[in-house]
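Worked Example 4.2. Consider the chain below.
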Amino acid sequence: MMRATPLPNREDLKAENERFAYSFLPGTLFVGLIWLVALLSYLNDVNLAWLGIHPRDFLGLTGVFMGPLIHSGLIHLLSNSFPLVLLSGFILFLHRSVALRVFVLVYVLSGLFTWFIGRDAYHVGASGVVYGLAGFLLFNGIVRRDRAGLAVSLAILFLYSGLFYGLFPSEERISWEGHLGGILAGLVAAVLYGEHVDKKQLAIPAEPALSQQELSAQQQHQSSTLSGAGYTWRYTLAKNEPQTRYEQKARLNPKTGMLEA
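Applying the procedure from the previous section yields the following structure tokens:
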């Protein structure tokens, strides 16, 4: 006999909602760090672009770690903040067991790819990390070929329909190499650390199976109370008039097991 999955109780739903909310906390803290760096840079009138990725320069490797924290302006900062919180939160919620490894791999590998293929300029901003996180969610569903993962992939394509436009040269100030490096890093992360998305299906809870002793007792009870050919109810209606007794006869239908008047 198959037993259905029990419905989650109120405490389970509350815990799941809290876990979903807390999944966005690390990304929010990371974005807060980026904004703090931008604020300090603005207040002190300091240009930190020299800490970005400088391709094929040994000292430029420091940009692999520092580059994502530095942005060229407010628009650049705003365009990366929300996707970082959203994508990192979904990865942490859906793939908690591998989330940290995915973040670290995407962060480092997107910068290294940019260092190898980038133009002779300083590349700054967290766009490569954003493309890497989106690429992981996109390619994970394709690589694993499960319905839940593919649904996430389609959602990413819908939310970031312009994702692929940033992979080609358009404006001189936009680092399409960083975007390309990020999407490649996401692909590598999906191959190495990708996993199936858990599908939590709610079902009507089934009654636990009766033990043999309980089943025997129930049968004895039924045979002692429902085996007769006819039954009679005696009842009294409560009203202002003197009490009157009524009788209603019924018999057991052996096919349906129901009492019929």
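Residues 201-210, 217-228 have pLDDT under 50 and may be disordered. Residues 64 and 111 are 5 Å apart (CA to CA). Compare this with Example 4.1 before moving on.
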